[in-house]
Amino acid sequence: MATxxxxxxxxxxYAAGDAAAFExxxxxxxxxxxxxxxxxxxxxxxxxxxxxxxxxxxxxRESYQVEAKFTTYLYRIAHNRLVDHYRMRARxxxxxxxxxxxxxxxxxxxxxxxxxxxxSGRREQVAxxxxxxxxxxxxxxxxxxxxxxxxxxxxxxxxxxxxxxxxAKSRLRYAVSRLRKALExxx
Length: 187
What we know:
Layout: H1 7-15, H2 19-38, H3 43-59, H4 70-88, H5 116-134, H6 138-148, H7 154-161, H8 165-186
Helix pairs in contact: 1-2, 2-3, 3-4, 4-7, 5-8, 6-8, 7-8
């Protein structure tokens, strides 16, 4: 541990009773962790799983040991919780996307990027990407989300999902390939 501000050092401090260390960890990782779940299940389920992971982290604080990066540890808990969730419930058929609210105000001479056709095009592209992401096999989607939302390396993805590095690399490569193909078909 290089400094007292590393995630690992913060977790050790939290295990020793430093509540402020937990607050720092939570602030650092709440967004990416929530998006990890958000991209893989319904919004209400994402919230429940998100909270469960933090509760499991809190309960396991006293047994925490630095064996890998904290993010690997955190996403390993998240992965296991997601697997449990899929075992308990059937995979949903569709993902509902919240439509972005329309701007009711009028702004004259908007830049070209703010024209209704440009906004509509971006929304459609985002919807296509979300659909393509949702259509990926679970393992590929998880590898992609861990990389893009969690910022995990291949080794960390492999550790978090309990697979070999080459398997994680293949899953990520296939996910990126399928997403590119889906977006190229859209154009």
